[in-house]
Amino acid sequence: MHEASIALSLIAVATETMLEHGGGRVSALTVRIGQWSAVVPEALQAAFPAAAEGTPLEGACLSIVFVPGVGDCPTHGPVELELRRGLRCPVCDLPTPTLLQGDELELDELELD
Ligand SMILES: [Zn+2]
């Protein structure tokens, strides 16, 4: 239940942010999930309602923004990676050891009531 613990930590971060803004309830939140973050968006969506029960996020609408993996090819610069090929440039097949984006798991937006 990897995604359940992720849902709980997102709720903790969202609650903290909400308190900083003096809000009483979160009505919607957007989370950015990288293709390479090993988080399954569907599983997170499924785990969220139960995790949010009894918190200021109960009943909040969870939106997930999927972020594709982008690697840094020595020849081609930033290239969009294909998960099944691993960290390799899809054009020239050179290794792209630096992941520029795609491993994020972060709270992007909060809507407060
Ligand atoms: Zn390349």
Give the C-alpha Rg.
17 Å
- Structural class by helix and strand composition: alpha+beta
Overall mean confidence score, pLDDT: 94
The main sheet comes to: 3 strands, mixed
Distance between the amino and carboxyl termini: 30 Å
Into which percent range does the helicity of residues fall?
A: 25-40%
Provide the spatial order of strands within the biggest beta sheet.
2-1-6
Q: Shape from CA axes?
A: elongated
**Poorly predicted spans:** none
Series of secondary-structure elements, N-terminal to C-terminal? HEHEEEEE
Number of helices: 2
- Distinct ligands, ions and cofactors found in the model: zinc ion
State the oligomer.
Answer: single chain
Tell me the strand percentage band: 25-35%
List how many beta strands DSSP finds. Answer: 6
At a glance:
The chain is α+β, with helices and mostly antiparallel strands and 113 residues long.
